[in-house]
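Internal ticket - ligand job 100, zinc ion:
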Amino acid sequence: MNCKKLISKVESGIITYNEWTELRKELNFNVVRINVSPVVMGFTICKKNSNLIFIESDLSYEAEKETLIHEILHIYNKDFQKGKCLKSKEYLYSNPISCK
Ligand SMILES: [Zn+2]
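stdout (C-alpha cells):
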C-alpha cells in the first residue's frame, strides 16, 4: 500500500498493526510521548533520514491524532530535507528540528 493511503488510514483512525508498521518502515519514523509544555503539541527530530516524532502526552485523542498526522506529513513531504522554513504554519506545533 502506498504511504498516502496509509496516512489516510491514520486520519480515519482505523489502521491495522501491520499497516502502521509498514508506514513507519516506509517513512522511517518512531513515535514517543513526552510531557513537554502546554503550548507545544509535537515536534520531529530528523537525523540521517531517520525521524523521531515527539507527541505531548496530555493531548486529547483527536489532538494527538492531528499532531501525529501533521508530523508524518512533514516527513512524507520531505520538508526537513528541503530545509523548508516551517515557522509560519507552526503556531501550535513546535518548530521541527532538521539535521543535515
Ligand atoms: Zn509542523
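Auto-summary: The chain has one domain: 3-82. Residues 9 and 16 are 9 Å apart (CA to CA).
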